[in-house]
Amino acid sequence: MTVETLISHTMPPLQPSDTVEYGLGLLMELRVRHLPVVGAGKKLMGVLSEEQLLDAANPGVKIGELLGPEAISISEKTHVFDVTKVIMDHNLTTIPVVSEAGMYVGLVRRHDLFERFARMLATQESGAIVALEVNERDVQLSQIIYLIEQNDVRVLSLSTESREGDDPTVGITIKLNVKEASRIRHILEHNGYHVVAAFGEEEDSEDLLDRVQEFLHYLEV
Q1: Domains of the chain, CATH where assigned
Q2: What is the pTM of this model?
Q3: Contact present, 71 and 45 (Cβ < 8 Å)
Q4: In 64-114, where do the E strands start and end?
Q5: Gap between the Cα atoms of 98 and 80, Å rounded
């Protein structure tokens, strides 16, 4: 899945002849903290941050004077996973997209990228959530899905997260197409899986609060 459908062709880039004052105003208007700088012939010259503009000597400084040597960019065919890594590595709110010839095409906003991930993870769909903790040597996603779906429950999404440092466990979060999670929790635990938390839409508020506190305690450990 590439970022082609996420590219904005309407958000204007900065130009090297623009002033710092103009750049800050445009960032505020577009509600982002980074914008590409594009020169003649749609050549990408770099990416400027709000912090760089605020550190300028005065509001009249030309943006072209603030550019560094590196121009971070992606291509239209870049996978959304790879784009996310670049954005997170450089803490960007937008990232420029260039053609095969190196010419500026448009930009991708972090907000739009994360909205895509939210849809991929079925966060807006109704359903219960189950969180597991599994040793990385024992991760068999197909078996987990089989245990769930043989009980007439469908997995809407599944995501994994490796722990930091020497922790050998993997966190697995599963979104289900049912509103009540206790049955699936029991099935998984009966088959030896450590269920960290299970959130069902039909639980009463007191039970849900207990489960949320249980999950938060787990995160703090």
Answers
A1: 4-117 (3.10.580.10), 123-220 (3.30.70.260)
A2: 0.66
A3: yes
A4: 74-75, 94-98, 104-109
A5: 15
Helix, strand or coil for residue 81? Answer: helix
57-92 pLDDT per residue, tens? 999 999 999 988 778 999 998 988 899 889 989 999
Strand pairing class (34-38; 44-49): antiparallel
Structure-token pair, residue 60: 């009249």
- Report the distance separating Cα 216 and Cα 34, nearest Å: 33
Residue type, 154: R
Rounded-to-integer distance, Cα 76 and Cα 201, Å: 39
User: Which residue, 111, 210, 120, 115, is CA-closest to 173?
Assistant: 120
Cα 4 to chain center, whole Å?
16
Q: For residue range 40-49, what is the model confidence (pLDDT) as tens digits?
A: 999 999 999 9
> Which is nearest to 42 in space by CA: 125, 114, 110, 99?
99
In DSSP terms, which residues pair with 195 in a beta bridge?
132
Q: Residue 192: exposed, middle, or buried by beta-carbon count in 10 A (0-12, 13-18, 19+)?
A: exposed
Tokens representing residue 62 in the block: 């030309």
